[in-house]
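Ligand: magnesium ion. Inputs:
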Amino acid sequence: FAKERGRNCFSFFTPAMQKQVQQRLSLANDLREAMSKDQLQIHLQPIVDIVSGQVVKAEALVRWKHPKHGMVSPDKFIPIAEEMGLIHEIGDWVFRQAAEAMSLWLAKATGNDCCQISVNISARQFMHSDIGNSWVDYLSAIHLPPSHVVIEITESLLLGDEADVMVKLQRLREAGMQLALDDFGTGYSAMSYLKKFNIDYLKIDRSFVRDLESDPNDRAIAEAIVVMAHRLGLRTIAEGVETEHQKDILAQVGCDYVQGYLYAKPMPVEEFFAFLEAK
Ligand code: C2E
Ligand code: MG
Ligand code: MG
Ligand code: MG
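Predicted complex:
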């Protein structure tokens, strides 16, 4: 019957697809309440200086502890939050939590090479919002020097409505925050962005790190990213480092920072501080 009615017909909507859509709808409804019910958290993952072995930065990653489904991955609910327009509220909350964690870290830290927190921002968060000014104001309200904050963006963001994105990114940068290009090498990697936008860090995507030990091409790619970054005055952070051997190869090619399960998984803020103290 479906065949008779042609290609664009609803019969292609299989029960499995229907189930998926329903799950999404139900998650979307729950997400509306997640904030007010305190179900969101941030976790921090250490970022280590590859030479000194010290934890010098941390990435803030949002977590949703759903009452029925347990931990829901941000890869799953961030896109929903974007579609529903909830991403601004969630993103502002994540930023403030991260900034407060950074203030705590600063208060506990003794060395003078301490330290930065990075926060992920999706392209949608830049649309119809005043990210630039409100975030700068927030940092000044809690007396956190903006140089302790790194904003992680992806290439897709730089592909958007450029003029507008430019102005907002510029505002964050002028205030003293730094910028990292996340998942580098997986998107368009149009090198012209590196010229136009003032980026401070390139994050070498996990997909190049995973097979570093066995695939000489991945080593070549990692090395090429590091060389280019350094020539442009940027630093590199490798993501998803799970083994000592991967770390050694990254050190050989001159990568600056490493992040991954080899050191620690993302963890709640209090655990992160306990982890630092135990080191
Ligand atoms: P990302 O920014 O590239 O974050 C790195 C992801 O890799 C995190 O997944 C982290 O837990 C995971 N990871 C770190 N080390 C390892 C490792 O050694 N092995 C493996 N297999 N994985 C590792 P997570 O926390 O599930 O986040 C997924 C993505 O969701 C993030 O990718 C980011 O794009 C997005 N995201 C997370 N938090 C936020 C947020 O607050 N706002 C926005 N807009 N996006 C977020
Ligand atoms: Mg990131
Ligand atoms: Mg990444
Ligand atoms: Mg990613």
